[in-house]
Specification:
CATH topology of the largest domain: Rossmann fold
Structural class: alpha/beta
CATH class of the largest domain: Alpha Beta
Helix content: 40-55%
Distance between the termini: 48 Å
Number of helices: 20
CATH superfamily of the largest domain: NAD(P)-binding Rossmann-like Domain
Number of domains: 3
Shape: elongated
Length: 504
């Protein structure tokens, strides 16, 4: 079935930020749009607000005056739910409360025609459960837009247990016709983005809770080394700590409180204290007038080494060899199992998931980077014994990366460090979702790039690193934290096994 014809009415129920955004998208795409809100007068206010945004689009050259005037003529505010009777699509964007949504759609089903597509914009509730009591649940889908809906391209098209293929396809093609990038997925807790993204927040919070690094440093390492657009602390302050924590708890509860999705106690305390982020003036960081943002821990300058010895291949960190040569550092190569020896005796290793106290003194780990050439910061970690007994070794390591043009953050002895444990978990979560039929590989990577601005899709990233590396790091983390949280998924293990078979 093709997209809903532009001559047909799209109704939006709920006129908050998301409802207005969705209505604007459908309106600009050419549909007549009818707004409804249970609170008297809200729909009319929303129509005025949308009209003002259309004016701003004209001012910015994104819409001409004729288009604006035509769009305004197609926008209506309904006083009664019955006025939505001729809609071809109704999108709900009301409170995230299951009984309220079920009651609404039960009422709508008595009003609209049987061929009207019914959709929910829920981000955390089960599409299947919302549609459970409907007479025709096959025409019910999830259309999950991302905020702000007019600007962000991603739409998750969610099929509930009873959703018919024709309904899902019609919703997909309609969203595509609106200029969006739709992805299809099954009705799993969190859908694609909110399911797979949980480790991005959880691993950062865990590092903070273990006193491995402060929030500003974790954010800086993930941005400047991992390539993420925002760090998880600043991002959750933007989203709202209450909102982010509620999604985490919802996904955790929906997965029967699996340790894979365990919420953060530190974030819970933040929410309980009323520090909800930018909107409350304080979250992980203060947003009061004149408040100075904490700076990432950055080590002072240290002498650069003249030469290093590279033992074996460095795996994902192999590009460092050419960077060192370009920096004028003599690089000697010897057989070995993948580490760098500095003149002072320090052994630098790409993080492997183990804590540094498991190595001999002088062992220093460095974090994974998305691109070592483009990275502007690197994190180093070592044991307390090495810091005390071999301070010169630590300075040698700092000086090496500074010579490569990197800021250096020395963090605590945290297994898996920051970027590595985050990326490994994201890749594993993505594989698990793929193996369970949540979405296709292409749609998973597209959703994570467009929905949360990841620098690479987690499946693509995992393939690039190799799942042998991913599983090795997660297995080691599992040894340190034997709760099941870091145990690699069966899908990741299969991929790691296949990589090993390919080497034979």
């Amino acid at each position: 079935m093709t997209a809903i014809d532009k001559s047909r009415t799209v109704a939006v129920v709920g006129t908050g930020t998301m409802g207005q955004g969705i209505a604007q998208v459908a309106l600009v795409a050419g549909h007549p749009v009818c707004l409804y809100d249970a609170v008297p007068g809200r729909a009319a206010e929303a129509a005025e607000a949308i009209g003002a945004r259309l004016d701003r689009m004209v001012d910015k050259g994104r819409l001409d005056a004729a288009g604006r005037d035509a769009a305004r003529g197609r926008l209506l505010a309904a006083a009664e739910l019955a006025e939505l009777a001729d809609a071809a699509l109704v999108v709900e964007a009301i409170l995230e409360e299951l009984p309220v949504k079920q009651e609404l759609f039960g009422a709508l089903e008595k009003i609209v025609a049987d061929d009207c597509l019914l959709a929910t914009n829920t981000s955390s509730l089960s599409v299947t459960a919302i549609a459970g009591a409907l007479r025709l649940p096959g025409r019910f889908v999830g259309l999950h837009f991302f905020n702000p809906a007019p600007l962000l391209p991603l739409v998750e098209v969610v099929s509930g247990f009873a959703t018919e293929e024709t309904a899902a396809t019609r919703a997909y093609e309609t969203a595509k016709g609106w200029g969006k990038t739709p992805v299809r997925c099954t009705d799993t807790p969190g859908f694609i983005v909110n399911r797979i993204a949980r480790p991005f927040y959880a691993e950062a919070f865990a590092v903070h809770e273990e006193r491995g690094a402060d929030p500003a440093t974790v954010d800086a390492v993930l941005r400047e080394c991992g390539g993420f657009r925002m760090g998880p602390f600043e991002l959750t302050d933007l989203i709202g700590q209450d909102v982010n924590e509620a999604v985490t708890r919802s996904v955790w509860d929906s997965f029967f409180r699996s340790t894979k999705f365990t919420p953060s106690l530190a974030q819970r305390r933040l929410v309980e204290s009323g520090r909800h982020g930018r909107k409350s003036g304080h979250g992980w960081f203060s947003y009061a007038d004149g408040a100075e943002r904490p700076r990432a821990r950055t080590e002072p300058p240290a002498p650069a080494p003249r030469s290093v010895t590279v033992h074996g291949e460095l795996g994902p960190a192999e590009p460092l060899v050419e960077l060192m040569r370009r920096a004028g550092i003599t690089v000697l190569r010897k057989p070995g199992n993948g580490f760098i020896t500095l003149a002072g005796g320090a052994q630098l290793r790409l993080v492997d998931g183990a804590a540094s106290f498991g190595y001999e003194d002088g062992a220093i780990s460095f974090d994974l980077a998305l691109d070592y050439g483009k990275a502007t910061r690197i994190a180093l970690s070592t044991s307390e014994d090495t810091r005390r007994s071999m301070p010169g070794a630590v300075q040698d390591a700092i000086g090496l990366f500074q010579a490569l043009g990197k800021d250096v953050s020395l963090i605590g002895d945290v297994p898996g460090m920051i970027v590595a444990r985050t990326v490994a978990m994201l890749a594993d979560f993505a594989v698990d979702a793929l193996e369970r039929g949540v979405a296709s590989a292409e749609d998973i990577d597209t959703a994570m790039r467009l929905g949360v601005n990841y620098p690479a899709g987690p499946l693509e990233w995992g393939e690039r690193l190799g799942f042998s590396w991913v599983c090795g790091l997660l297995d080691t983390l599992h040894d340190h934290y034997p709760t099941g949280r870091y145990a690699p998924s069966l899908g990741s293990k299969r991929r790691a096994f296949s990589e090993g078979e390919g080497d034979n």
